[in-house]
Design goal:
It contains eleven helices and 18 strands. The chain has about 475 residues and is α+β, with helices and mostly antiparallel strands. A hairpin with a 2-residue loop joins β11 and β12. The N and C termini lie far apart (about 110 Å). This is B30.2/SPRY domain-containing protein. It comes from Coemansia reversa (strain ATCC 12441 / NRRL 1564). It holds the Pfam family SPRY.
């Protein structure tokens, strides 16, 4: 116990004794006044002042009730006085110690602070953090859940929560709940705070990559929070240090060790009770007994690190390692929102729409003959500069050779339109035709005419070689 606690206890004891004496005196005075007003003799409570010894049970019961009521009121007043005295004594002692020993807001003297802040960077970070607190006190920015954010939670469920990486943070957002710190002192927070409608909210953080010399602080903090400060080092925040199992609350100098060191693969859980402001922690599904109290603020899941590392958070989108949280459904929101997920791939097979789109349209004999493409080995196309002529074989010869080809493939090949005609300047068509692609009909070969031709840029097309089946 510190000196301030000892002085506070002594003053509380003195105040309690004084209150007891005051209650006793008040009770005696009230009883004396009641006896006198009721006509009883103080030396003989059962005898009246007029000399008559008559007394009844109602007078005795009335006296007893009055004494009990006076004692209860005096006790309540005494408890209130003790509380006021104790609170006042604590404040006075703290102010006196700060004045005598030169303590700051964290209760740390300048000498101890200089010993803990060993280098200039840490001192500058501390001073900038205090300046940030004075510039953005709690309540200066409205961080409560708005109507739009609540609608977003109803629509998306737990997927509405995601981490936000500011431009001044040296980190990369790998997914909505996975962050990679690139180096230096950095801190990230979620886009939405923890709700307050349920009794308990819980989430877990898994260490994916972390070197041994890198420290991480996982916990809760208000917004805005300094992007270069660790969680729990500034006001209105608390964080669990992964390297020593200590918990910081509102100060970088004071910490309570409640757990063990965390390694890669370990999972740290954070539970929050918004009605009482209590924060507790779990490690790999086992809950620690120690708690952090007094966190009655709009808190955001906050994770910070002083080096390169990565983590993955679980806000309830999958099962927790802490079994009780799964049974009581302590996630931040519902697993599925009001927006339905997309349909399963392949679930739209054998539907009316696809059957209508894929079914062949009925055609007449004339339309069928005109719309069919001609086999490539029976067609000759002459390609000029801007004109294309389709020269086909007689219908009887086409039908005969087409039946041979259909019998070879087992079914009749049908297309609903003629293949496009390409000019000789089209380089893509020329490459496909030279490569012998079967996607273009017909497959042709180019032969450039001699320069003395009257049309120097024209070319003729010779008939392609017949297929093996037709030659046979």
């Amino acid at each position: 116990m510190t000196r301030a606690g000892i002085w506070s206890c002594l003053l509380a004891i003195l105040g309690l004794l004084h209150t007891g004496l005051a209650v006793r005196a008040a009770t005696a005075a009230a009883a004396e006044s009641f006896y006198i007003l009721s006509g009883f003799d103080l030396n003989n409570p059962l005898a009246r002042l007029d000399g008559s010894d008559e007394s009844n049970d109602s007078d005795e019961a009335l006296i007893i009730l009055f004494i009990l009521a006076t004692a209860v009121c005096g006790a309540l007043v005494g408890i209130g006085v003790v509380f006021i005295v104790f609170y006042t004594a604590t404040i006075v002692v703290q102010r006196f110690r700060r004045f005598v020993y030169g303590l700051d807001e964290d209760g740390v003297s300048e000498r101890v602070r200089n010993q803990l802040l060993t280098d200039e960077d840490s001192r500058q970070s501390y001073e900038l953090g205090r300046a940030f607190e004075r510039q953005y006190p709690y309540g200066s920015v409205n961080t409560q859940l708005t109507a739009g954010q609540q609608a977003q939670i109803r629509e998306k469920g737990v997927d509405a929560w995601e981490f936000v990486v500011n431009v001044d943070v040296n980190a990369m957002l790998q997914s909505k709940t996975e962050v990679l710190f690139m180096g230096g002192e950095n801190c990230v927070q979620t886009n939405l705070p923890l709700p307050k409608s349920n009794a308990v909210y819980y989430f877990e953080v898994k260490l994916v990559e972390k070197p041994m010399d890198v420290n991480m602080w996982i916990g809760l903090a208000t917004r805005p929070y300094p992007a270069w400060r660790m969680t729990g080092w500034n006001k209105y925040s608390t964080g669990y240090c992964t390297n020593n199992g200590s918990v910081h609350q509102n100060s970088p100098f004071k910490a309570a060790r409640i757990g063990e060191r965390l390694f890669v693969g370990d999972i740290l859980g954070i539970g929050y009770q918004p009605r009482s402001g209590v924060v507790w922690f779990t490690r790999n599904g086992r809950r620690y007994k120690e708690i952090v109290s007094g966190m009655l603020y709009d808190l955001f899941p906050t994770i910070s690190a002083d080096g390169p590392c990565s983590f993955s958070a679980n806000f309830g989108q999958r099962g927790f390692v802490f079994i009780e949280a799964n049974v009581k459904r302590w996630g931040l929101g519902p697993v599925e929102g009001s927006i339905l997920p997309p349909p399963v791939y392949g679930a739209n097979q054998n539907t009316i729409l696809l059957e209508t789109a894929t079914s062949p349209s009925p055609l007449s004999d004339d339309e069928d003959e005109d719309s069919h493409s001609v086999p490539a080995n029976n067609t000759v196309i002459l390609i000029d500069d801007y004109e294309s002529t389709d020269i086909t074989l007689p219908r009887q010869q086409r039908q005969g050779e087409g039946q041979q080809q259909n019998s070879r493939h087992g079914r009749r090949q049908r297309t609903n339109h003629r293949p496009p005609l390409y000019q000789k300047e089209d380089p893509i068509a020329a490459q496909l035709l030279e490569a012998g692609s079967t996607s273009l009909e017909p497959v042709v070969k180019y032969r450039v005419k001699q320069p003395e031709s009257p049309l120097p840029h024209s070319c003729s097309v010779i008939e392609s070689a017949p297929s093996s089946s037709s030659s046979a």
